Each structure stands twice: as structure tokens, then as C-alpha cells.
Amino acid sequence: MKKYNLENLAFISQKLRKKGKKIGLCHGVFDIIHTGHLSHFEEVKRQCDYLFVTITEDKFVNKGPHRPVNNHYFRAKILESLRQVDYVGINFSLDATQSIKKIKPDFYFKGKDYKGKKDFTERLYKEIKEVKKINSKIIYTDSPLKSSTEIINKSFSYIFDSKLTQFLEKKNKKQLLSKSLESLKEIQNKKVLIIGDSIIDQYNLVQALNKPIKESILATKYLKKDIFLGGVFAAATNLAEFNKNVSICTVMGNDKDTKEQVKKFQKKIKSKIFFEKNKITTRKTRLVDSAYKKKISEVYYMDDNLLGRQNKKKVISYLRNEVKKFDVVILIDYGHGFIDQDIYSILKKKSKYLAINCQTNSANLGFNLITKYSACDYVCIDEPELRLAASNNVQDIETIVTKKIIKQVKCKNFTITRGRKGSFSYFKNKTLYTPAVISDKVIDTIGAGDVFLVISSLLYSVKAEQLVTNIIGNLAGALKVDILGHSKSISKSNFYAVLNHLLK
Questions:
Q1: How does pLDDT run across 137-187, given as a tens digit for each residue?
Q2: Nearest-CA neighbor of 501 among 485, 479, 483?
Q3: 202 pLDDT tier (thresholds 50, 70, 90)
Q4: 3-state secondary structure 139-163
Q5: What is the DSSP string of 236-270?
Q6: Which of 5, 133, 350, 354 gives the lowest tally of CB atoms within 10 Å of its CB?
Q7: Rounded mean pLDDT of the chain?
Q8: The three-state (H, E, C) secondary structure of 359-396, written as one string
Q9: Mean pLDDT of 417-427
């Protein structure tokens, strides 16, 4: 709709300002209009001649699952009907900077609850910066502006999983939020080394045709392919949203189609990559149905003897000299042959804090078990990996961890991720089950466990509270499953916004 276009509003604003009229601007989601909004608009209108209101487009509303309740056109239509509002626009970006830049209001209005508020998403900071750039003024109204999100979260149980909301109702959410923010701040400057296998994830987007008449297979039409750096690359990229000092150590083959991606990665994250000229990096190719964004099948190209003799000497030399410089070392063993006992023994001996994830999957035929490691500071694996390692599919996971695995892997701290069931943790001799922050649109589960691993490793290394760590880890994993493959990392801004609304 043209009338909601920012370009149109910019033109109208310019004409009004030429006539000497004072322009006011409000911006928000405005998912459900309530009396607080009306009072806010009343106060705003008394201070300007014309009130422009812009709203956040649906895809940029980061307030939790199933949000917004109302789409942006419906929200715009409601605002348009209010007598206090003169013009309405839809802002197709994450913050209001575009609205401010184009409309150039004399006054930019925010509710009084924003004054002095911790701006962990940095959106308000950007908006204030833009207001100053156009020589405008920001005004905080006195009207009590109750959050739509608060109303929605209390009125509609489906916004977050009901088990989680019931669980959190018994907790001091304000205190939990404060502790979460403090812990996240504490880990942002820790020196971290992530060591493990490189993986190239290739997604072939296809259109499903039908079953051929003479064969029992599914025929597909190739559309396009996307190639992403997976394994330790993806783990490091996601952690870099929360930590400024991430490094990786890995080995790669001679893969011509990823050279530019590797170069770009190395510019952003410190990398010690050992290249094997005559070998290929583990590549996992997936056929993805274009209509439903669901995987149809997978083909693996693997060389589990990727690390040659000469490079192994170099890896060991590097680790002997460098490992002690890191606050936290995170070993991610995907079972593709890079990590062996020689490398592990150095990590065990020299790491200040060693976290381990050992993945048991179809690519390593189920032979890669956490019990191959004798000791560390923290273990994070999923429930099937735990049960395979213990050869136990009957007992509860608490018993398996505390009575069996802990004796085989000398480690005081464990987290067992459980997908939609949340997580179980054993920390400082205390056990805790935490419900999941369930995403309503699971696109791809690849990498969700790795995200939980890397962020929880840092949090436990600084002795963050058990519940705080589990909530943060569960939330990070839930945001990751909304992303196809490793096309992008989870957004720091999105994460903080959802965390804030979860613990409101």
C-alpha cells in the first residue's frame, strides 16, 4: 500500500515543514493498541502539529514466537483510525533510523520507560544518533506506556511454550534477566579457542516432482545450491555475536569453491587453519525441498584421515605454545578424524578450562562416543549421544550422568540437550531440568546443539548460575533452528530482544 510507504511520508513531511508545521514521530510495534498508547499519543499531539507513526515490519518484530499477533498492514490500519494520528508508515528495517532519516521530524517521542533503560539491542542508541544528526529533539513522555508485549505474554499462553512460562512464573524473572545480562557481559572479552573438524555444508534446493513410474525413488528438479562453512566455523561465527576474542584451530582440504568464504572468515575471526593440498574437507550435501524447506536426503563426502603427518606435527607445536593463552578451550569432535588422543592430551594438560562436545552421528557410524575422553571441565552432548555412550536406553538421564558417565569421564559439570524437551544440567552437584524455548518454525536443527555448547561453555567457565546458563543456551538453540544451515549466525540484537520479552 502506497500510503504506508516511507517515501510518501517523507514527501508529505517536507511539504508540511515548508509551511512551518511541527512534525512529531512515534515508532514501535503497536501489536495491540491499549489505553497507554492513547494517552501517549494524546500527550505527543499536544506538542506538535502533525503526528507521524511508523511501525516495525512483521519480519523484524523480535518479541518471541508467534509475534506479532497482528500483521503490519492490520496494525497500520488500526493506527490510521485513531484521531490523534495523522499519518502512518511501515518501516521495513530493524530499528527506526530509516523513519527518522526520511521523515525528519522536529520531535522524536518515546515513552518514559525508555529513559535510562539498558539498551542491550543498541536500537535506541542508533535512533538517538540519527535524531541528533538531523538536529531534531528526542522527548520522553510522562504518560504511563504499558508494554503490549507484557499484556500479550500474560493473555496468550502460546507466545512461549506453556511449560516454560509456568516454570518461569515461579522464578524472579526480573532478577533472572539482570543476572543473564551480567553473565553475558562477563563472557564477552574472554579469550576462546574452538578446535575441531571443518565441515562444508552444501544445500541443493530442489523441486520435488514425483515418483518415476518404473522406480521406487523420488525425482527432483535442481534449482540452485548454497554452500556454507560448517563445523567449527559455524560454531565460532555464532559465538562471535557474544564474544570479541574467538579463535579457531582446524584442518581443511583443497576445496576451491570455499576459498573466498574462508578468506572472509579469516578477516573476522582469528584462524589457525592447516591445509592438506591433496585431500577434501568433509562435505555434507543435502537435498532441500524448495516448497517446504525440508531436507529430503543427504550425501556425505568424507576423508577421515584428513590430517597428514606433517600438519599433525604443526598442530601439536601450535597447541603446545598457544593453548595456555586462552581462558576457555572448546573441543568439538564431529568424528571426522582431526582430534586424536595426542591432540587431546595436550588440551587436557594445558587448557585453563576445557569444554568438550563429542558428536555421535550417522557420518561416524555411531562410534564417536564421549567416553573416549577421560577428563575435562565441562561436557555438553545430546540425550541420544549420552545413552549410546552408556549403552542405556532405559534409565533416566540423571541416573546415567551421576551414576555412570561421570565415573568414565571425570568431569563435574554436564549438560544434556534434549531438543523440544529442553535441557538437563549437572553443575556443582546440583541437577536441573529446564523447559525448552520452543521455536514455532523449525527450519533446520543443524548447529543448534553447537550454539548451546559454545555459549554455555563460556557461561559455566565464569561460574554463571545454572538456571541462567540453561535459559540462555535453550534460547540460543531455539533461534538457531529458525535458520537454514549456516546461511547466517543468530542475531545478537534478536537474541537480547527475545530474552528481554521472555523474562518480562
A1: 999 988 655 555 555 555 443 356 778 888 888 899 989 999 999 999 999
A2: 479
A3: very high
A4: EECCCCCCCHHHHHHHHCCCCCCHH
A5: HHHHTTT-S-EEEEEEE---GGGHHHHHHHHHHSE
A6: 133
A7: 89
A8: CCCHHHCCCCCHHHCCECCEEEEEHHHHHHHHCCCCCC
A9: 92
Q: What is the pLDDT of residue 145?
A: 55
**Separation between Cα atoms, residue 159 and residue 154, nearest integer Å:** 9
pLDDT at 157: 39
Q: Matching CATH topology for 2-157 and 181-502?
A: no
pLDDT tens profile 228-284: 999 999 999 999 999 999 999 999 999 999 999 999 999 999 999 999 998 999 999
Nearest CA-CA partner of 148 in 309, 34, 273, 10:
34
Contact 502, 434 (CB under 8 A): no
pLDDT tens digits for range 83-135: 999 999 999 888 899 999 999 999 999 988 777 766 666 788 889 999 999 99
Least confident of 134-148, 349-363, 390-404: 134-148
DSSP category for residue 410: B
Task: Specify the CATH superfamily of domain 181-502.
Answer: Ribokinase (3.40.1190.20)
Q: Give the start-to-end residue ranges of the domains of the chain.
A: 2-157, 181-502
Give the whole-angstrom CA distance, residue 303 versus residue 289: 28
> Does residue 371 contact residue 389 with C-beta atoms inside 8 Å?
yes
Q: How far apart, in Å, are the Cα atoms of 251 and each of 197, 302, 346, 402?
A: 7, 13, 17, 35
Long-range contact pairs involving 122-128 (C-beta distance under 8 Å, separation at least 24): 122/493, 123/94, 123/95, 123/96, 123/493, 126/95, 126/97, 127/27, 127/95, 127/96, 127/97, 127/100
Cα-to-chain-centroid distance, residue 221: 32
Q: How far apart are CA 34 and CA 51, in angstroms?
A: 18
At residue 225 the predicted structure's pLDDT band, cuts being 50, 70 and 90, is: very high
Contact 13, 103 (CB under 8 A): yes
Number of H helices, E strands in the chain: 18, 18
**Per CATH, is 2-157 categorized as 3.40.50.620?**
yes
Cα–Cα dist 103/109, whole Å = 13
Q: How high is the pLDDT of residue 440?
A: 60
Q: Considering the entire predicted model, what is its pTM? A: 0.76
CA distances in angstroms from 47 to 30, 80, 103, 140, listed in the order given: 21, 19, 17, 12
Strand order in the sheet with 192-196: 270-275, 246-252, 192-196, 328-333, 354-358, 378-382, 414-417, 423-427, 430-434
**CA-CA distance, 350 to 190, in Å (whole number)?**
17
Q: Is 328 left (phi over 0), alpha (psi -120 to 50) or beta?
A: beta
Strands (E), 390-496: 414-417, 423-427, 430-434
